[in-house]
Amino acid sequence: TIDEATKIASELQNAMNEPMNLVGQEVFVSACIGIASLVAGYAQAEDVLADAAYAMERSKSGGRGQILPYRREMRSHSSGEWMLLESELRHAVERDQFHIFYQPIIDLRSNQIIGFEGLLRWDRPEQGIVSPGLFIPLAEEIGEIIPIGEWLLNEGCRQLAEWNARPQQTSNPLFLSLNVSRRQIDEPLLINHVEAELLHSGIDPKTLKLEVTESLVMERPEEMSRVLTNLQAMNVKLAIDDFGTGYSSLERLHAMPFDTLKIDRSFVTNILVDQRRATIVRSVVEMAHALGCDVVAEGVETKTDVDMLIRAGCDLAQGFFYGRPVPAPEAERLLKLSTRPQLTVAN
Fold first, then answer.
1. What pLDDT score was predicted for residue 341?
2. Structural domains for the chain
């Protein structure tokens, strides 16, 4: 499968990330990797290689060390619809077409909302909301993820500052989690931009939490450690997202300055009926606590999930049981509900 091939590609990149000695000098190399899957129904091996090579060439536009699976849409960029999508995406920020939807994050001990994850949405004219699964990879490919990511950080910090300026939040400020992409990590000005936005918005740096996926951390551990350490120096909180989907080692995790570990939803789903998943969750929670991290469970959908996570010692939770991602005004309504005893936010 594509997922399996991507994991193997990540392992190859990890091996290549190790320094090599060349005539007495330490050198580092990286590789862009294209992937094509046989399940696409190829007639000849040459066609598989051609598509993998095409994906590799496209991956180079995303910076060094990229992994890009081939998609049929890549070769349809000449079609009017795909060209229009790309053109509109390039102007979406200046046309104010992006919005942030906020999903509540719950403290399992107090049953209160203590923060939100900010999720990007593109409201494309005439077509409506575009799936992030479509436009985020495209934004990565064409380089637009940098200005989009800057907008997300700016707007998220502005909204967070507004919420935390209210009297009811002064003693218990909310935090906001935002995702950081592979291309943003490669951006030399990322640290400067985060620092500038913290000053501009006036928020407490500890109320901003930046998330990177486990797979990204494992693909380039040395570079990630440098970037994360610089962010930590500003007192920004850091989270490793989708934990359990990659091949991270305890040694590498211990070397990274993470504050939060987010358990992937695949381990939370059916946790009651699959004892192995429950065992994994308990083990992950114990490991995270030993590393000084709190734990967020993603994809919580039932009261049974909540009860099991509490028994496992999990700290925080998010999922449809507590609320779907919603626009800021609706998130404010959830905050008001959260001040009442025995919170259960309707979907």
1. 41
2. 2-76 (no CATH), 90-338 (3.20.20.450)
